[in-house]
Design a protein that fits this description.
Order of helices and strands: HHHHEEHHEHHEE
Number of strands: 5
Radius of gyration: 20 Å
Number of domains: 2
Helix content: 40-55%
Strand order of the largest sheet: 4-3-5
Shape: extended
CATH architecture of the largest domain: Roll
CATH superfamily of the largest domain: Beta-grasp domain
Oligomer: single chain
CATH class of the largest domain: Alpha Beta
Length: 147
């Protein structure tokens, strides 16, 4: 049990444990997406050990991800929880933080639901955010930067 493992390894009760079976993780790498899902379901796993480790690390380090989305690329950026819009933009390039004007922001759910920026704007899901705005986990952002 979890408490037995903590006692045996002399780990405090408030420490985060992420059990990972290296053999299982190696096996999952060799399968395609469908086979991986089937194998995980058969073993009663909701997510891979690697995904659980990353999720726990993000939580412990107080990190979040936001996205930028252009015509050819969608990219995730890692920020500290509570980052302002200029701080989040500065992760891409320090000049973005210095020359920040505003951000066009929506949730990733709305971005997918409305099929991109045009649909987000048409359906009123776009937020115009200034320098004090806090960027949240899963936001999709387009930065307006001065010259």
């Amino acid at each position: 049990s979890d408490s037995d493992a903590r006692a045996k390894l002399d780990i405090s009760a408030d420490a985060v444990l992420v059990p990972i079976c290296a053999k299982t993780e190696c096996d999952l790498i060799d399968f395609d997406e469908e086979e991986t899902a089937e194998m995980m379901e058969a073993m009663g796993m909701k997510e891979s050990g690697l995904d659980a480790l990353i999720r726990s690390a993000f939580t412990l380090l107080k990190l979040e991800s936001y996205f930028t989305a252009g015509v050819q690329e969608v990219r995730a950026w890692t920020i500290k929880k509570g980052s302002t819009a200029p701080q989040a933009a500065g992760v891409i390039h320090t000049d973005f933080a210095k020359k920040f004007i505003k951000g066009e922001v929506c949730s990733v759910d709305d971005f997918v639901k409305y099929n991109g920026w045009a649909g987000v704007k048409e359906n009123g899901a776009l937020r115009l955010e200034g320098k004090e705005a806090i960027i949240h986990d899963g936001d999709v952002c387009m930065w307006k930067i001065g010259g």
